[in-house]
Structure formats: structure tokens, C-alpha cells
């Protein structure tokens, strides 16, 4: 499969990364995962804008414009050799310095990498029955707004879910919901949707942004605010949302049913609108 590496397109196994790359040594970098359905990228501009905001915040300058990024993503998708839906993965690190030292090195070019993978869409059973999740403490740092390649917090959260035999782990910080292992979280009570506000405790998910837009367009009550942990136990519906999990209803939390224990009416109203946006 074709990949992108610092201005060139080449087979993935021909990409060689220096052990001095700051992505390897310090996780000093950012990434993006964008889906493409039927050969069409979903919300690529939003993913590019988030990457560019993150890079500006970290003072990493690739010299690539939004148009350049879009061209890279489109070429990777077009030449992927993947028959069905796919994801485009992009990663930028601060690059490989001559020696190891924490501060930003001078005169080092960022490393820019891209690849594609087949997209495994969520199984139909997730939409029919929902999925199970657990809650766990959020042990991550306080810049979760950056889509950092330093993912140990998310790795451990996902493994806690897997060890518990469930799909996701909803993280709690200071008594409020932050997000899932790699998803944003929504709760519904009496027809009103709430999701944690967009601050540095969460990643501003592109799927989340699409949900906010759909809610506004279709007159769904949706509030961005602190969501108390206790609201999860009282919720009629809980959803997790991301590029790869789409919008998935959580119907069991910590071994107990959420609401009726089946995907709820607000999700059933919203999901078809979302699927239509995906071209699905
Ligand atoms: N929150 C975290 C921590 C994530 O890692 C992700 C995606 O990987 C999301 C939320 C959802 O973001 P998006 O909808 O852009 O995929």
C-alpha cells in the first residue's frame, strides 16, 4: 500500500524513520484519522483545520497549506489499492534532531507521514443492540484538545475496556465525564442531549462537531456543558462518537442497563441523518 513520507509517495515498507525522530523519542507530534466512504473523504477540511491548529499550538511548521494537505489525502485515498471504505492516517512530528534533548531543536524539518487502512465499519449489532462500556478515572494530561501521538492514556483506557469485555471506557475527571478511550460522549435525559463542553479536557471530535450541526439543523435540544458522572447512571441514552465508531449507542454501563437497555429514540432519530452525511 502507498504511503506519503516527506514529500514523496512510496510503498509503506520503504519508509524508514530515524530513531532520533522526536515522534519516536518524545511522542512530539500530532495525528489525524479521516474516513473515506465510496472514495469520498468525510469532512477532510475539518480534520486538516484541527491538525493545523494543533501544529500552530506546538510551533511545528510543515510549510504545507490546507490545499496541500487535501491533495495528499486525496492522492493517498485514490492510490490506496483498497477496494472498500478506508481511513487516511496523517502524522506530523517535530522531526529528527542531531541529538536527544527535550527543548525544540533549531533548524529541524518536521517529519510528515501518511498512510491508508481499510475501514472496518461498526458491526450492525452495535446499532441494533448497542454496546457495553465501563467508567474509569481519566489519568491523562490536561491538553486533551491536542490530537497528540502520546496516547498511553487512551491505550490504557482501551485495554481496560477490552479486559472488561466491553467496547469503550468512559473517563471521569473530578466527578465529570470527559470522553471515551478515543470517542466523545453524549448523554440524553428526557429528550435533551448533553455533551462535555469543548475545552482542553477533551478532543474536539469531528464526529462531535457533525452531531452538533445536525442537532442545530433538526431542532434537537443539545447543550455543551459539564456532564456529572451521576448523569450517566440516570441517563435515558448514552452515545459514543468518533470517526471509526460513528455514533454508537451505549446500552450497558458498568454491567447495568442504560435506560431501557436498547438504543433510544433520540439516537434512532439522529443516526439516519448522520449516515446520510456519510453517504451510507
Ligand atoms: N476523543 C479522543 C480522545 C479521540 O482519540 C478521538 C478520535 O480518535 C475522538 C475523541 C473522536 O474524534 P473524531 O470524531 O474526530 O474521530
TrEMBL record:
InterPro entries in the cross-refs: Aminotrans_IV (IPR001544), Aminotrans_IV_CS (IPR018300), Aminotransferase-like (IPR036038), BCAT-like_C (IPR043132), BCAT-like_N (IPR043131), Class-IV_PLP-Dep_Aminotrnsfr (IPR050571)
Source organism superkingdom: Bacteria
Cofactor names: pyridoxal 5'-phosphate
GO molecular function, one term: D-alanine-2-oxoglutarate aminotransferase activity
Alphabetic keyword roster: Aminotransferase, Pyridoxal phosphate, Transferase
Gene3D superfamilies referenced in this protein's UniProt entry, alphabetically: 3.30.470.10, D-amino Acid Aminotransferase, subunit A, domain 2
Family membership noted in the UniProt record: Belongs to the class-IV pyridoxal-phosphate-dependent aminotransferase family.
Name of the protein in question: Probable branched-chain-amino-acid aminotransferase
Taxonomic source organism: Azospirillum picis
